[in-house]
C-alpha cells in the first residue's frame, strides 16, 4: 500500500487542470535535468530527490494519459 503522503499528492495532482499538469511536468523535467548536472559534478546533496522527481514525472504523465483517454471516449 502506498504511503499516505503519496496518496494525498496524487489527489492534489488529480485536482489540477490539463494545462497545470503540463506546466508541472515541464518544471519537474527542468528539475530532473538540474539534479543530473549536480550529480555529475558531485554537488548533489539529496540523492533521494532524484527518485522522487522521477516518480512524480511518471504520476503526472499517467494522469495526462488518463485525461486524454477520457476525452477520446467522450
Q: How many strand units?
A: 0
N- and C-termini, Cα separation: 32 Å
Radius of gyration: 14 Å
Helix content: over 70%
Structural class: mainly alpha
Which stretches are poorly predicted, pLDDT < 50 over at least 5 residues? none
Tally of alpha and pi helices = 3
How much of the sequence lies in strands comes to under 5%
Strand count, sense and barrel status of the largest sheet are: none
- Give the H and E element order: HHH
Large-scale geometry: elongated
Mean pLDDT: 92
Describe the structure.
- The structure is a single chain.
- With 74 residues, the protein is mostly helical.
- It has a domain at 24-73.
- Helices cover 81% and strands 0% of the residues.
- It contains three helices and no strands.
Give me the secondary-structure topology.
Elements lengths: L3 H11 L3 H23 L7 H26 L1
Q: Which descriptors apply to this entry?
A:
0% strand, elongated, 81% helix, mainly alpha, 74 residues, 3 helices
Quick synopsis:
This protein has a domain of 50 residues. With 74 residues, the chain is an all-alpha fold. It has 3 helices and no strands.
